[in-house]
Amino acid sequence: MKILYLTSEARPFIASGGLADVAGSLPKALCDLGHECRVVLPLYSDVKPEWREKMTFLCNFNVALAWRNQYCGVYTICYNGVTYYLLDNEYYFKRSGLYGYYDDAERFAFFSKAAVELINHIDYIPDVLHANDWETAMASVYLNKFYRHIPLFKGIRTMFTIHNIQYQGQFGMNIAWDVLGIPEYHQNVLEYDGCLNMMKAAIQESNIVTTVSPSYAREIHDPWFSHGLDGALYNKGDRVIGILNGIDVVSYDPSSDKDIYVNYSADSLDKKEDNRKALCAEMGIEYKKDTLLIGMVTRFASHKGLDLVRYIFDTLMQDNVSVVVLGSGEREYEDFFKEVHARYPGRVGLRLGFVPELSRKIYAGADVFLMPSKSEPCGLAQMVAARYGTLPIVRETGGLKDTIHDMGGENGNGFTFQTYNAHDMLGAIQRAEKLYQDKAAWKAAMRSAMSCDFSWGKSAKEYIAAYERIMKD
Ligand code: GLC
After folding, report:
1. Whether the Cβ atoms of residue 319 and residue 434 lie closer than 8 Å to each other
2. 142 φ, ψ to 5°?
3. Is 207 near ligand 1, meaning CB less than 6 Å away?
């Protein structure tokens, strides 16, 4: 099976969120199963020079977008056995950061069309074009409306993966022709609820739609989670499936992770304590043996459940706990964490930003990892935390529900609560505090969390089965 995997970010080249982790590990897992998966992503100026130096220029071509005719250069690099194509256009991608520009619709439509056009210029005809999130959603539309008549493209099947249904690529219909170059007689594909919706178009145009956990696949059929797209998903019938993300278990391994203070495994948990001590020192937390250290690494966005944390924070601080937080995003949450950081010196540690090395130190050094999301398509941090013996405290939603099970039941590897309610969350934290005082029980709990298998093995096979299924269409 040959797969061409389209993504707006992929580790190790460029990352801003969980998509980069998935795009940096699933293709390798597919290759390990004996298939071929190549990855296409934009060549942003933030891709570091040390990577650029290793890339080879392959070819260039032009991409038509309505009345525009834009240059596209193709650079290639093989990393970990996977071939990557990085598409270059300085007008669109020579800017700092990845997203958030006024012309994002045009930038990513360009990228999506260029990725399809690429097939005309390389020696690789994929069986499946696998697009991810709204940034690459237009690929299936361009393929179906502009390329199907060319023999090379006839048999290509399409998969679209939703990593977060909240971000749909919604714009005014007025850009449909002028920017995207979609003629009026095809514009019904793009239209949804009075505006242009790229994710809706990909749902409609792709052979199959997947999302990143079975629970989230069920949830997004419900208007509470769907951000308006439940109708489009219902129309797709059984062509919407959930496949749980894996994590890169080689990179995220406490026994070899170079970014943590001291390496350890389930057999040397005393060394985890050394990580806790060092993390406290780094984050300005007073180190005490019996104080439960709660870690959080999160984007400051409302769906991450930060309202719950804010609501009970002062009550929580009456307990024997301290908190370390790493994150950035919406101003109101930044302000909240800055304020409690000032009010609880030595008990609340805060770092604003996206700092991958520090996040690993928190996975290793905290006792519990709090992730009370309102919705969570999959979530990767809770799996990494469990693998590092840091017990996750999660709300039972999406991928959190599929990966973390309460210590009170079978296969316990963390603490969970059901309702989106601050005191239910507090209850889960307090159950952790109680167990923490029983050192032997806590060690056993850490060991069971660390023994969970979060590798791609099973899920990569499910992707192959889904690809094979659409090949029969
Ligand atoms: C998005 C989701 C997150 C998921 C990740 C990778 O960032 O919000 O839950 O783990 O994509 O699929």
Report:
1. no
2. -60, -40
3. no
Classify domain 270-450 by CATH number.
Answer: 3.40.50.2000
Beta carbons of 133 and 192 less than 8 angstroms apart: no
CA-wise closest residue to 295 among 429, 454, 437, 453: 429
Which residues neighbour 220 within 8 Å (Cβ) at sequence distance 6 or greater? 162, 165, 211, 226, 229, 230, 233, 240
Helices (H) and strands (E) in the chain, counts: 19, 18
Strand partners, 14: 10
**Start and end residues for every CATH 3.40.50.2000 domain found in the chain:** 2-246+457-471, 270-450
The CB of 24 under 6 Å from ligand 1? The reply is: no
Candidates 134, 135, 152; CA nearest to 143 is 152
Per-residue pLDDT of the chain (473 residues; tens, 9 = 90+): 999 999 999 999 999 999 999 999 999 999 999 999 999 999 999 999 999 999 999 999 999 999 999 999 999 999 999 999 999 999 999 999 999 999 999 999 999 999 999 999 999 999 999 999 999 999 999 999 999 999 999 999 999 999 999 999 999 999 999 999 999 999 999 999 999 999 999 999 999 999 999 999 999 999 999 999 999 999 999 999 999 999 999 999 999 999 999 999 999 999 999 999 999 999 999 999 999 999 999 999 999 999 999 999 999 999 999 999 999 999 999 999 999 999 999 999 999 998 999 999 999 999 999 999 999 999 999 999 999 999 999 999 999 999 999 999 989 999 999 999 999 999 999 999 999 999 999 999 999 999 999 999 999 999 999 999 999 99
Counting atoms of ligand 1 from 1, which one is nearest the CA of 399?
9
Distance CA 110, CA 357 (A): 33
Query: From residue 180, how far is each of 141, 229, 340, 404, 436 by CA, in Å?
Result: 10, 22, 46, 42, 56
Q: Is the CB of 18 under 6 A from ligand 1?
A: yes
**CA atoms of 360 and 341, how far apart (whole Å):** 21
Our answer on whether the CB atom of 435 is closer than 6 Å to any ligand 1 atom is no
Domain 2-246+457-471 has CATH 3.40.50.2000: yes
Tell me how far apart the alpha carbons of residues 268 and 265 are, in angstroms, rounded to a whole number.
Answer: 5
Buried b (16+ CB within 10 A) or exposed e, 47-83: beeebeeebeeeeeeebebbeeebebbbbebebeebb
